[in-house]
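can u pls check wat happens w/ iron/sulfur cluster
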Amino acid sequence: MRNESLIPESLPTGMENFRPTTTAESSRHADGTLVDKYGRHVTYIRLSITDRCDFRCTYCMAEEMEFLPRDRVLSLEECLRVVRTFVGLGVTKVRITGGEPLVRRNVMWLLERIAALDGLKELVLTTNGSQLDRYATDLINAGVKRINVSLDTLKPDRFKAITRIGDLDKVLRGIDAAQKAGFKRTKLNTVMMRGTNDDEFADLVAYAVANDLNISFIEEMPLGDVGHGRGNTYFSTQEALTLLANRFELVSTLETTGGPARYWRIPGTDTRVGFISPHSHNFCDTCNRVRITAQGELYPCLGQNDAMSLMPLLRANQDDGTDAALRAAIVDSMGIKPKGHDFTSQLDAPKVVRFMSMTGG
Ligand code: SAM
Ligand code: SF4
């Protein structure tokens, strides 16, 4: 039976492919956890708390961005209701992202409350590091367990060119502040771009080793039209591994964090080198996550356009502590989680019109 109350009245632009499912099509496991129709358990959510950012990275955003008006962004209270409902459905890991999450006002209010939710094992955050020197200690105190910091280059001019705005020194000071505040095994995220930073992969690994950090290299994904053909900048994991092997002994491991990355170790160091390879190693079979945008759209897959808007449900129903309609919609969303993405055929003609900053990386 179709549950009409779960179908949002109007769909935001870009959600034309939304097809409401029936509760019969989707599934909730007998133990009350979320399982999609391919049998994958969803235990991890990524919540973007703002589409705004103090950088304009060339692979993530267009130079001129229009950001959402405030009333179309989830309030911090609404963010908390969404996370609380997912945790009630067995989600144990939450990543807060954006845009740049640390530019959202009163972000610590939200983080403290999420960290205190019963059943949550890990609250983690992805940041560009620009505000870390100010907030590292507050993040630890709020209950954030680990952080990822984006770092694509160690050259100040190049950093400015890639981010269009950013100051490398401030980010490096932020990473230092995070170490001093007590964050362990902070992970750098490096997007690999041919002709832009491919001469620095080994230096970035050396920086990670010297500072007791982990590092993951990411193949650029065709999300949104950023004005350059991604086919020209695409750099494969295999090629990067060959490059790194000239300088480091890399030992492949079977370690997994339940996500898409595959890991290598450098003997004699604690540094783990990861690769996220959506093109050369499709990871969809084991996908355990969904994403929620700053405007409350639930995207079961980063690389597809299907989504469900949670905002109308949040705004139509007062917070009664149970959020039954929201809970039912989330259960239903398992029915639209697709088998996988198709990034490789879209390198120069993205089908996904959203920028990464909108969905949350
Ligand atoms: N502003 C924060 C930051 O930069 O870490 C969090 C949001 S950002 C969208 C999350 C991650 O997505 C970053 O590590 C960024 O490098 C990555 N990213 C953005 N656009 C990407 C793309 N087109 N392909 C691959 N990774 C991308
Ligand atoms: Fe901002 Fe992060 Fe996107 Fe760079 S990657 S523009 S820091 S959201």
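Residues 4-359 form a domain with the TIM Barrel fold (CATH 3.20.20.70).
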